[in-house]
Amino acid sequence: MNTEKDFSPLTPNIVRALNDKLYEKRKVAALEIEKLVREFVAQNNSAQIRHVIQILATEFALSQHPHSRKGGLIGLAACSIALGKDSGLYLKELIDPVLTCFNDSDSRLRYYACEALYNIVKVARGAVLPHFNVLFDGLSKLAADPDPNVKSGSELLDRLLKDIVTESNKFDLVAFVPLLRERIYSNNQYARQFIISWIHVLESVPDINLLDYLPEFLDGLFQILGDSSKEIRRICEVVLGEFLKEIKKNPSSVKFAEMANILVIHSYDLIQLTSMTWMREFIQLAGRVVLPYSSGILTAVLPCLSYDDRKKSTKEAASACNHSLMKLVTPEDDVDDEESQTKSSPQSDGSPSKKESDLNGKCFSNISFFTPASSDRPVVTLDLDGIVQVLDRHLHDSSTGMMTRIAVLKWLYHLYIKTPRKMFKHTDSLFPMLLKTLSDESDEVILKDLEVLAEIASSPAGQTDASGSCDNSDSKTELHIPGGVRDGQPVTDLSPSTPSMNSYFYKFMINLLKRFSLERKLLEMRGAFIIRQLCLLLHAENIFHSMADILLKEEDLKFASTMVQTLNTILLTSAELFQLRNQLKDLRTQESCALFCCLYRSWCHNPVATVSLCFLTQNYRHAYDLIQKFGDLEVTVDFLMEVDKLVQLIESPIFTYLRLQLLDVEHNPYLIKALYGLLMLLPQSQAFQLLSHRLSFLMLSKQEDPKAPVKDKRLAQPHIDYSELLQHFDRVQSKHLEVRHQRAGRSEHPDRKL
C-alpha cells in the first residue's frame, strides 16, 4: 500500500500500524481509530465518520495486501464500538466489506472478519435486523468452513444473532423465507445443522409464526431428516415434532393441501416413519381437504402395509392413514361431476400452482400425483380415477405384498359400496384382474376378492338399461341372462324365487367357469372354497342355477363332468348349502321343481351326480330308471370311484332322512331298488360291503306278492316331465360317448389329420 497517500483524517502512524503484520500494532491503531471516531460523534460530524469508514473499507479491508485487509477489519470494528448506538446509521458501510472478507482464501483473515462482524453486531444489536438476510447468507457459508477456528468464531456470531432475533419483535420473516427455502437444500452437513438450528430458534419465538410458511421449506426439512448424521437427524426430528404440535393446536390455519404432496414425495426413503406420522395427522385433522390427494397418499401408504415387524411402527402409521382416508369417502362422492360443479362457486382455471408444479417436478417417475383444481373450493372432489389407477397398478404388480393386496381389495369394496355409480365406469377394466386374483396363494386375499366380485355382481348400479350401455365388453364376453327360449324351445325351468342380479353376475359366472376350465389346479385346490364363499356372499340358488345353465352349453364335456361333480359334492356336503338342500328335498313348489330341472340337465354330464341329485330330491323312481341305463354306459375306474363316493355319502348325515325311509319298505320300493342297483354296479370293495350290510338289515313287514302293484308314496311331480329328462340324459351321454371315441381314435392314429 502507498503510505504516502493522503488518508486523512487517519494519521500516518495509524496507517502504518494498520498495515503492520503484527496483530498488537494493528490493535493499537484500532484504539486510535476508536478515539478519533468518538471525537467525530461528539462533534456530530457524520461526514467525517463516513469518510473514515470508507477509507477503512476501500483502502484496507478490500485491499490486495493481506495485512492491510486485517487492519481494515479491526478498524471497522473499532468504528462500530466508537459509534455505539449510532452504529445503526452506518451498518451497511460497516457490514458489506466485512462480509466480502468471508470469501477470502486466507483462513486467518476469515477468522478476523468473523471477529470484526461479531463486534459490529454486538454493538448494533436489533439495528442489524434489516440486514439479517446478508448476515445469514454469510454465516451459512462460514458454518461449513473447513478451518475449525473460523467455524468456532462463526458459531459465536451465530449465537449472538440468535439472541438478538429472539429478543426482537421486528424480525422480517417474509423477507427471510425465500433465503431459507434456497439454503435449506444444501448438502453440507454443517450448513444443514446451521439451517435446522435457525428454524428451531425461529419456531420457538412466540411473535414469529413460522407455521404459515411451513409449505415453503417442509420439503427441505424432510431432506435434512434423511442426513447420515445422527445428530442432525435428531435435531430435525425435534423441529418437525414441534411443528406437528403446532399443527395439532391450530389446524384451521394450516395449509394442508400445499403440504400433502410433500409428504407423499418423502414416503420412499429412510424417513418413511416421520412422513407417515405426519400424513396420519394430516388426514385426521384436515379431513376431506386431503381427498383430492388420495391417489398420491395411497401410492405411498399401500406398500408399507406389507412391512414386517422390523418396520412395525411405519406399518402401524400407514395402516392408520389408510383407515382414516377410507373413512373420508362417503356416498356424497358418488354425485355426478356436473352436479358438484353447480354446488361450487366459480374458481380459477384449475391449473396447479407454481409450488405444486415444482414439487411434482421433483417427484420420482413411478409416483402418481394428482393436484386438485383449487384448494379453496368449497366442494372437495374425490379423484376416483386416480385412486382406481393406483389400486389397479398394485393388483397387477406381482411383487405386491399380501397385506397390501388385501388393503387394495378392501378399498375397491369400499368404493363400490360408497360410490357405486362412478365405480361401475371402471368395472370393465378392473374385472379381468379381479378374476385373475382368484388364483392368489392367500385365502384371505381370495375372500376379499370374492367380496368385491359379489358386490359388483349384485349392486343395482351395475344393472344394464334397455340398450345395455353399462356393459361395454366385446362380443366374445357379451352375456345374456338366461330366459325366454333355449334351443328354440320356451324355457320353463328358470327359478324366479331368487333376488335379481345385474348383468355382471352372469358375466362373472361365465368367466369363473372359464377360469376353472383353463386352470384345473385352481378348480382342484380352491374351486370348492370359492363356490362355497360365493354361496354365502350371493344367493346360493343363483350360483347353482346360473352355473348349471352355463355348463349346459359347455363344449368341453370332460370339464363339464368334472365341474358338475365338484358342484354336486358342494351341494351335498357344505353347510352353506343347507337351505338350498331343503328347498330341493321336497320339491313342493313350482320354483323348486324348476330349479331341479335346471340342475338336472347339467348334472347329466355326470351320471353318478345325476343319481345323487335324484336321491337328494327324493326322486327315487327316476333314480332307479337312471341306474338301469348305467348298463349301457362305459363303466370306467373313475365311474366306479364316483359310485363308491356316493355310497359313502349315503352313510353321511346329509342322507339321514333317506336311510330312515328304508324302514318303510312298502312305500319306498324304488329307493331300495335303486340302492340294490348301485350295489350291483360295485365290485367287491369296501363300499360294496358297506351298502350290502346296510341293505341286509331291511326287515320286511310282510311277504310281498310279486304280482302286487308297487305302492310308492313318492308321487311324481306334476311340474316335471320325467320322460323328457331321461331323453335328455340319453342325449348328453351319447355326446360323451362320441367324444371318448374320437379321443380314442386320435390316440390310435396320432398322425391322422382330422
UniProtKB/TrEMBL annotation:
InterPro entries referenced in this protein's UniProt entry, alphabetically: ARM-like, ARM-type_fold, Vac14, VAC14_Fig4p-bd
One GO cellular component term: PAS complex
Record field: compositional bias (Polar residues): 342-351
Ranges where the record places region Disordered: 332-359
Compartment(s) where it occurs, according to its Swiss-Prot or TrEMBL record: Endosome membrane; Microsome membrane
A biological-process GO annotation: phosphatidylinositol biosynthetic process
Top-level taxon in the UniProt lineage: Eukaryota
Domain (Vacuolar protein 14 C-terminal Fig4-binding) ranges: 520-696
UniProt KW keywords: Endoplasmic reticulum, Endosome, Membrane, Microsome, Repeat
Chain ranges passing through the membrane: none
Functional note: Scaffold protein component of the PI(3,5)P2 regulatory complex which regulates both the synthesis and turnover of phosphatidylinositol 3,5-bisphosphate (PtdIns(3,5)P2). Pentamerizes into a star-shaped structure and nucleates the assembly of the complex. The pentamer binds a single copy each of PIKFYVE and FIG4 and coordinates both PIKfyve kinase activity and FIG4 phosphatase activity, being required to maintain normal levels of phosphatidylinositol 3-phosphate (PtdIns(3)P) and phosphatidylinositol 5-phosphate (PtdIns(5)P).
Family designation: Belongs to the VAC14 family.
PANTHER family membership: PROTEIN VAC14 HOMOLOG (PTHR16023:SF0), TAX1 BINDING PROTEIN-RELATED (PTHR16023)
Subunit annotation: Forms pentamers. Component of the PI(3,5)P2 regulatory complex/PAS complex, at least composed of PIKFYVE, FIG4 and VAC14. VAC14 nucleates the assembly of the complex and serves as a scaffold by pentamerizing into a star-shaped structure, which can bind a single copy each of PIKFYVE and FIG4 and coordinates their activities. Interacts with NOS1.
Protein name, UniProt field: Protein VAC14 homolog
Organism of provenance: Cyprinus carpio (Common carp)
